[in-house]
Amino acid sequence: MPLLSSSHSCLCNCNLFAAITLILSLTPSLQIPLLAPISKDDTTQLYTLSLYLKTPLQPTKLHLHLGSSFTWLTCDNSTYTSTSYHHIPCNSSLCSSFHPTACSTCFHSPAPNCATNACSLFPENPITRNTLLATALIDALALPTSDGSTHSPLVLISHFIFSCSEHSLLQGLPVNVSGLASLGRSNHSLPAQISNSLSSPRCFALCLPGSSSKPGSAFFGSTGPYFLSSKTDLSKSLTYTPLIVNPVGDTVITDNAQPSDEYFINLTSIKINGNPLSINASILTVDSNGFGGTKISTAEPYTVLETSIYKAFVERFVNESSAFNLTVTEAVEPFGVCYPAKEFTETRVGPAVPTVDLVMHSEDVLWRMFGGNSMVRIEKEGVEAVWCLGFVDGGIRRRAAVVIGGHQLEDNLVQFDLESNRFGFTSSLLLQDVTCSFQY
Ligand SMILES: *[C@@H]1O[C@H](CO)[C@@H](O)[C@H](O)[C@H]1NC(C)=O
Ligand SMILES: *[C@@H]1O[C@H](CO)[C@@H](O)[C@H](O)[C@H]1NC(C)=O
Ligand SMILES: *[C@@H]1O[C@H](CO)[C@@H](O)[C@H](O)[C@H]1NC(C)=O
Ligand SMILES: *[C@@H]1O[C@H](CO)[C@@H](O)[C@H](O)[C@H]1NC(C)=O
Ligand SMILES: *[C@@H]1O[C@H](CO)[C@@H](O)[C@H](O)[C@H]1NC(C)=O
Ligand SMILES: *[C@@H]1O[C@H](CO)[C@@H](O)[C@H](O)[C@H]1NC(C)=O
Ligand SMILES: *[C@@H]1O[C@H](CO)[C@@H](O)[C@H](O)[C@H]1NC(C)=O
Ligand SMILES: *[C@@H]1O[C@H](CO)[C@@H](O)[C@H](O)[C@H]1NC(C)=O
């Protein structure tokens, strides 16, 4: 496969790189996004991003996380083989652009995870909230471009910065991943480093797959167009709401005054079948301690609602679903409301149920969810299949009052546009007969 170099040091293929950046900067409508497939793990309900790392390039799977300030992966001696890695000196400006850091010393022979005067970071697992201290590394990263042709050239980012980690930090993540891909707001996240290296827009889009059998897609460094299993540009279907910064970070090892790397949006109300719930508006606003508000997170498989919102939501949903001739049956954990599957009419966008609208900063900006996103089908041997309302009770005094989780994002295209500081969403692409897989 042809490799296009985009290194800072620009050791080779400089002309090709110059040509690519020229196209990107002169004709914004022809931005070439980098693409990565996303897969869903049935055991953990988490999502995995596939990319290439090291020299020679090795396919690598990382847990997709919409937060964290940097990417991390295990680099013990036996698994980390690369001819191109190097450490970051402790007193460099690159090292001090991370918060917090430590400086490592090595008492063995030097290795990826062992070096002296090596800038070290605190990688964190967002599922278990475990953390440890490990050296930072710079090595090669590559992703394919989407050029609409049958062979897709890889674009090389030769100075990709990330943190090492240990095998123990992988606990709670899908079995085949070797670390975490940070898609957070930070200047060192995966999308930020791609955009900084290629001088492409600080914007990425995701389409999470609804099943483990079909891959989904991530597009980096482009505000569109986006083509999935369709000939229509899906960026035209996006509706936007401002992204909000939570002023208080939520990492285990913190450095004062670092804002959160997570994505918050201005959810102001929830409507079921068009009727608004009464919600205490103050908990939908992020306060000065970082509490309240609505964030988007792939660390939660299902949307989590603060108790008072959850109660109002369930009560109203059950009320509205009586018009659909649905009668509740025994609930299945972790859900509170389930219905026998045989009572449902199936539609293109899942079982027919009352619509759930997330109302954003303005009354007319709605993110509409149909049965495929609001309901979860549960089949167990010897028990009648049920559809359960796929929202869970998060208890009181939650850091975020609403966490929009993975299931509610599936088969939707969502865009995180840091150029315009806005979040774009489409509603279910199944309405347009489009799935999340991309075509070369
Ligand atoms: C960093 O430390 C090394 C070794 O201690 C030293 O040679 C170098 O000048 C320092 N660089 C800066 C930018 O302080
Ligand atoms: C890593 O491997 C190298 C070469 O095989 C060896 O010299 C070194 O001692 C190992 N380091 C550790 C920390 O195991
Ligand atoms: C993990 O990888 C192994 C070997 O590549 C493969 O056989 C297995 O199906 C994978 N498991 C999952 C859950 O992806
Ligand atoms: C982000 O990182 C790039 C290098 O990767 C650097 O040139 C730029 O100044 C940084 N921006 C900010 C706001 O820190
Ligand atoms: C709304 O929530 C805030 C913060 O939790 C609380 O102080 C206030 O009393 C609540 N208001 C109502 C009407 O429940
Ligand atoms: C639904 O709620 C309305 C008022 O909001 C109430 O009049 C009606 O009786 C409720 N229906 C059911 C089935 O609970
Ligand atoms: C609900 O059941 C009633 C009585 O059986 C029927 O008249 C009505 O059409 C049904 N409504 C729906 C939405 O299926
Ligand atoms: C959220 O939207 C409401 C209604 O438009 C507005 O009053 C409020 O200032 C917004 N909050 C933020 C943090 O932008």
Please explain how this structure is put together:
By secondary structure, the chain is mainly beta. It folds into 2 domains: 11-232, Beta Barrel (Cathepsin D, subunit A, domain 1); 235-432, Beta Barrel (Cathepsin D, subunit A, domain 1). It has helices at 14-26, 93-96, 190-198, 307-321, 371-374, 406-409, and strands at residues 3-5, 34-41, 46-53, 58-65, 72-74, 86-87, 102-104, 118-121, 134-144, 154-165, 179-182, 203-207, 216-220, 239-244, 263-265, 269-272, 275-276, 294-296, 303-305, 338-340, 346-347, 350-351, 356-359, 366-369, 375-380, 383-389, 391-393, 402-404, 412-417, 422-428. The strands form 4 sheets. A 6-stranded mixed beta barrel has the order 3-4-11-5-10-9. A 4-stranded antiparallel β-sheet has the order 17-16-23-24. The chain has a 3-stranded antiparallel β-sheet with strand order 20-26-25. Mean pLDDT is 90; it is low at 1-30. One 2-acetamido-2-deoxy-beta-D-glucopyranose is lined by residues 242, 244, 266, 268, 361-362. One 2-acetamido-2-deoxy-beta-D-glucopyranose is lined by residues 77, 108-109, 111, 114.
Which molecules are bound besides the chains? 2-acetamido-2-deoxy-beta-D-glucopyranose
CATH topology of the largest domain: Cathepsin D, subunit A, domain 1
Strand order of the largest sheet: 3-4-11-5-10-9
**Would you identify the CATH H-level superfamily of the largest domain?**
Acid Proteases
